[in-house]
Each structure stands twice: as C-alpha cells, then as structure tokens.
Recover the amino acids of this structure.
C-alpha cells in the first residue's frame, strides 16, 4: 500500500469509527437519556381509578398540589418539596417572594380543585362536596397544608370536620371512605 | 511538565470541596497554569537562546520545583492560583529549553521533534490517571509535592550542561534569527487542544461529580485514554503523511467527544469506546501537528515555544468556553432531575406518610450537596420492614436514582458537543495546510 493510500485509509477509518460510535449511541437512546419532563400543573390529570381510602387520599393530595402549584406558577414537584417542613416552606416563600396569605389562598384553591377532581372521578358525592368546599374556605394555612400532605385525615375525620351535618352526609361517601 | 495541565484534573473535585470554591473558581487552577504557559512559552524560548538552554532549563526547573512546593502548601484558592502561575513560568522556561538541548542528546532535530511531540501527547493522556491515584491514595497536595523531586531529578543532568555553557559562552548559531512559526499547524493544535481539554476535564467531572466515582475509580476509568494513545503512537509511524494523521486524529477526538455527548446510560463501560477514539486521536493529532510545526524550522526552542503556546492557549479557550455552559447546564439539569425525581416520589405507590418523610430526607440531601447532583440512596435508609412498603421503596429508589443519573449525564452533553465541534474546526487549518506542505 502506498503512503498516500495509507493516509486515505487512516482518515477513512477515523470517519467510519466515529460515525459508527455516534450512530450506535443514538440508536441506544443517547439523545433521549434526559430526566423526565414534569407536567404542567394547570393541566387536568385524570385520576387513576382510585381503590380504597389510601389511594383516594393520594389522588386528592396530588390534585390539591396541582391546583395550588398552578395558582403559584410553580411545578407540583417544587411545591411538594416546599411543604415537606416549615423550614422548606419558608425557603420556598423567600425564593419566590410569596407571603403566607398568598400561599394559603393557593393551597385552598388547590384543595377546591381536588374536591372537583374527586367529584368528577366519582370518589366523592356532590352532596358531600358542597359543605367540604365551604369548610375549606375557612381553614388556616397549617391545617390546609396538613390536608394536602395527608388527605386521609380529611376523609377519615369527616365527622369532626363537618360538625353536626356529618352524620347526614356520611351516607353520600363512597364505600371505602366510610370511617 | 507537559502532563501538568492534565495531572491536576482529577484533583479538581477535591480541591473544589476542600477550598470551598465553585466549579468556575476551581477551573482557574487549570486556566491560570495554561494561560501563563501560553503567554510565557515563546519569550522563555528567546531567553533560553540568549542565556543558554542548559541554564534556562536549570533555572526553569528550580522555579517549577519551588512553585510546586508552594502549590502543595496552599490553603486558599488565591495562593494556589498564584503558585500555579509561577509554576507555569518555570515550566515554560524548562520545556522550551529542553527542546533546544534534545537534538544534541538524541542525534538529530527530527528525532528530537518526534520525541518531544510524543512526550506531550503521552503526558496529556497519562496525567489524569496519575493525578487520580495520588489524590485518592494521598491527597491533592501530593500531586504538586511529588513534582518537586521529579523536577530536581530532571535538573541534575541539565546542571552539567549549564556549567559547560557558563564556561564556553553561548554559541553564535543559537542566536540566528528564527523563522516564522507554522501558523496553520499551531492554530490546529490550539483547536484540538481545546477539544482534548474538554474531553479530560469534563469526563473526570462527570465520573466523580456526576456518577459519584472515587478519584482512584475515575483514574482507572480514564486510563483507557493513555492506553489507546499508546496504540495511536504505534499506528502513527506507519502513515508518513502528517496531514492525514492530523486529520484522522482530529476526527477521532471529535467522534469520541460526540459519543460522550450521547451516552445512552450512566454506565462507566459506555465511556470506554469514546475514550479509545479520543486516546488514539490525541496521539495522532498532537504528534503530527507538533512535528509539522517544528519540521525544518530552527531554532527548535522558539518553534517548540510556539507549539507550547498554541496547545496551552487552546486549553484555556476550551476551559473558558466550556465552563460557563457546563456550570449553567449542571444547575439546570440538577433542578430538572430533582423535579423528575420528586414526580417519581409523588406518583409512586409508597404510603403517603412515608412519602412525606422521604421528601423531607431527599430535600435535606439536596441541601447538603452544594451544587452537586445528589446521591440519593442514603435518604431511603433504613428500608421499611413491611414487605409491600419495602418493595415499593426499593422500586422508588431505583427510579429516583435513574432520574438523577439522567440529569447528571445530560448536563455534560452540550459541553461535550462543543468540544467535538472544536475538534472538527481543527480540520479547517489542517485542510488549508495542504498547500503549505504540512
């Protein structure tokens, strides 16, 4: 092989080796190996056929987070981390310039959206949804956050939460939610 | 000294943590050395010709040794960077002067140029592995402290030459005017050095900061590059055309960087094929371009100075261009990965109360990681005793780590791609150099 041919062979080999590597990694998913994109909290997420109180509570919390995050213009995930502790909450409020009143308003809006979603999914009777909405408008921030963190307390303690009307309203709860 | 730019790379994460600086700040430990080398190499070569290469090399080595000691004793980033600048001054004097001494030692200028070019390529490739082993087994300071006896050992034979020069005065031939530097070869050298800096610097950061490898683990992984460079150095002499070797080398470096930009999973083994291409490529391209820049040009020290200057300027350009992109990307990808991880936690089948506890622990780990991509495993300890909860938590941990790995790996992609582009740009001067008898 002449010197010139060896040179051409070397350059050709380099091109082929490089293209093969890039093509193999692209074919193996190299271009899509990225973190999953988070969803827009303002878009409705259908409930996953909830079974039992724990699952309904989970779906309720997620809907409430979506609703509150949509109001605040942050992702559901950012808000969830902010609600992990009071220190995280304070850091979040400082970072986004949000005061307690605005946060409470957003969380109440989120809980109202969760009630709507529960109603749409057939997990909550419309008759129970109405007084629940009324009650949520009145609750303080810490209690609202507790309800987002663990909606079971809301669903399990309907009696104490709704006061004298609860006995009447219990009959409208789905089977899994009857305390 | 030719390995110094790369030998520090594996120590950077430890320096970054111990001296409490940022990724951008710690980059200056590399940038300062390379910048001073780039600026001082040609003037140092002129001085070497005036005072005699033996004396210049001896003084250079002494300065290098003293500054290395100061680097090892540094307790702040500012003093470390200052010592690195002095170290580069000594290094520039010694490296260019040694090239002037080599032809007499090895018998011909051509052989001296080949040896010197080979030493540069080997040094660049071997540096990270040596640095990683020293950092883990001893400390980052040991990298600099070890350079002191090495520099002194190198100075011993040179002192004899320096004594001889002192008694005979500088030869007249050494003072003949130097010809113009080979602009295209040096330009290509700068571009390809920028790409190689990207490969070494970013791969090490990906392995240690992104995937959580120890420095010694990362050193073992990046040893693939010098081993492949050895293969490249055996391949080179079979192809007489320097232009073909340079072009093939630049293509291989770019192809390897392209592969690193498109890693399909956070697995060490997947970095091996790109490293093989980069190792072979850097050996071919650095030696071909350095030999071309020196070929038929005298005095060797001046033209060697130009190649040193071009190579280190390329490293500076590469680091300065890539660091802001990389630091912005890693911050963005870290947040995206954390969001994706939180989404995994929220959508998981884990008991809601356990989710709250996990969310809190995950946030704590993120806060404690100071800008790094967090290692999330410890947030899940101890695992729940209930078998159902345990299975759900184990699945969640795996999904969450996958999201973080994706974020860490993807954060490096744009910088690797830019490195690949720099390597391909080197093909322009290599192509143009055809008419200039490269």
């Amino acid at each position: 092989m002449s010197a010139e041919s060896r040179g051409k062979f070397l350059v050709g080999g380099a091109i082929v080796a490089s293209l093969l590597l890039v093509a193999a990694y692209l074919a193996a998913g190299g271009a899509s190996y990225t973190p999953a994109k988070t969803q827009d909290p303002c878009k409705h997420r259908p409930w996953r056929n909830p079974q039992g109180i724990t699952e309904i509570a989970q779906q309720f919390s997620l809907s409430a987070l979506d609703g509150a995050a949509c109001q605040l213009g942050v992702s559901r995930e950012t808000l969830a981390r902010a609600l992990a502790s009071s220190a995280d909450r304070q850091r979040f409020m400082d970072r986004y310039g949000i005061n307690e009143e605005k946060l409470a308003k957003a969380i109440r809006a989120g809980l109202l959206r969760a009630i709507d979603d529960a109603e749409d999914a057939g997990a909550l009777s419309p008759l129970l949804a109405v007084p629940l909405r009324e009650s949520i408008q009145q609750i303080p921030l810490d209690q609202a956050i507790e309800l987002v963190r663990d909606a079971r307390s809301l669903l399990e303690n309907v009696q104490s939460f709704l006061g004298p009307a609860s006995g009447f309203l219990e009959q409208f709860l789905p089977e899994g939610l009857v305390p | 000294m030719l390995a110094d730019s790369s030998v520090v790379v594996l120590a950077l994460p430890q320096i970054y943590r111990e001296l409490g600086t940022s990724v951008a700040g710690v980059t200056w430990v590399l940038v300062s050395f390379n910048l001073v080398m780039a600026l001082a190499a040609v003037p140092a070569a002129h001085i070497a010709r005036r005072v005699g290469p033996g004396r210049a090399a001896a003084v250079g080595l002494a300065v290098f040794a003293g500054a290395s000691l100061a680097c090892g004793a540094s307790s702040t980033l500012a003093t470390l960077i200052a010592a690195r600048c002095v170290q580069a001054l000594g290094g520039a004097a010694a490296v260019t002067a040694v090239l002037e001494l080599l032809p007499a030692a090895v018998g011909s200028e051509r052989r001296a140029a080949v040896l010197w070019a080979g030493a540069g390529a080997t040094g660049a490739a071997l540096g990270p592995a040596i640095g990683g082993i020293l950092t883990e087994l001893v400390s980052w300071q040991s990298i600099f402290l070890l350079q002191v006896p090495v520099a002194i050992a190198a100075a011993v034979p040179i002192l004899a030459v320096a004594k001889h020069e002192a008694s005979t005065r500088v030869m007249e031939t050494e003072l003949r005017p130097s010809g113009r530097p080979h602009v295209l070869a040096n330009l290509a050298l700068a571009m390809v050095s920028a790409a190689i800096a990207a490969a070494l610097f970013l791969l090490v950061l990906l392995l240690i900061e992104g995937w959580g490898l120890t420095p010694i683990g990362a050193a073992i992984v990046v040893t693939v590059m010098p081993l492949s460079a050895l293969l490249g150095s055996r391949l080179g002499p079979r192809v007489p055309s320097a232009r073909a070797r340079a072009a093939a080398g630049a293509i291989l470096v770019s192809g390897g960087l392209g592969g690193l930009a498109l890693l399909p999973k956070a697995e060490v083994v997947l970095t091996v094929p790109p490293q093989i291409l980069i190792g072979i490529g850097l050996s071919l391209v650095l030696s071909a371009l350095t030999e071309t820049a020196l070929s038929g040009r005298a005095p060797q020290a001046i033209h060697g100075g130009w190649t040193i200057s071009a190579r280190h300027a390329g490293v500076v350009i590469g680091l300065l261009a890539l660091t802001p992109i990389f630091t912005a990307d890693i911050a963005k990808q870290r947040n995206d990965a954390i969001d994706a991880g939180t989404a995994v936690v929220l959508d998981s089948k884990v008991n809601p109360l356990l989710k709250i506890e996990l969310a809190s622990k995950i946030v704590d780990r993120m806060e404690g990681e100071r800008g790094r991509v967090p290692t999330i495993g410890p947030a899940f300890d101890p695992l729940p005793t209930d078998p159902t909860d345990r299975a759900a938590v184990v699945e969640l941990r795996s999904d969450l780590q996958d999201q973080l790995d994706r974020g860490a790996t993807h954060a490096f992609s744009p910088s690797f791609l830019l490195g690949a582009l720099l390597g391909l740009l080197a093909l322009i001067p290599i192509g143009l150099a055809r008419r200039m008898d490269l």
Chain B touches chain A through 56 residues (CB under 8 Å).
